[in-house]
Amino acid sequence: MPALHIEDLPEKEKLKLEVEQLRKEVKLQRQQVSKCSEEIKNYIEERSGEDPLVKGIPEDKNPFKEKGSCVIS
């Protein structure tokens, strides 16, 4: 199936797509940013101890550690 390029559509089709998108968006349940950001902050703080980017990866479990060195003479 070829990709759909909005700029290639006639104006009437563009407007139909926009109305369809707006109908979908109006059905979405919205929440206050202040509440959501607090929930995200708590989620991150609760799991920071398990996060390898924060805690680091133990050398014995690190799949990316160097296996050995390479010497070119």
Automatic annotation (TrEMBL):
It is a lipid-anchor. Keywords: Cell membrane, Coiled coil, Lipoprotein, Membrane, Methylation, Prenylation, Transducer. CDD domains: GGL. SUPFAM superfamilies: Transducin (heterotrimeric G protein), gamma chain. GO terms for biological process: G protein-coupled receptor signaling pathway. PROSITE patterns: G_PROTEIN_GAMMA. GO terms for cellular component: heterotrimeric G-protein complex. Residues 5-73 form the G protein gamma domain. Pfam families: G-gamma. It is found in: Cell membrane. GO terms for molecular function: G-protein beta-subunit binding. Transmembrane segments: none annotated. InterPro entries: G-protein_gamma (IPR001770), G-protein_gamma-like_dom (IPR015898), GGL_sf (IPR036284). Residues 12-46 form a coiled coil. Residues 51-73 are annotated as: Disordered. Its main location: membrane. G proteins are composed of 3 units; alpha, beta and gamma. Belongs to the G protein gamma family. PANTHER family: GUANINE NUCLEOTIDE-BINDING PROTEIN GAMMA SUBUNIT. Guanine nucleotide-binding proteins (G proteins) are involved as a modulator or transducer in various transmembrane signaling systems. The beta and gamma chains are required for the GTPase activity, for replacement of GDP by GTP, and for G protein-effector interaction. This is Guanine nucleotide-binding protein subunit gamma. The lineage of its organism: Eukaryota, Metazoa, Chordata, Craniata, Vertebrata. The gene is Gng11.
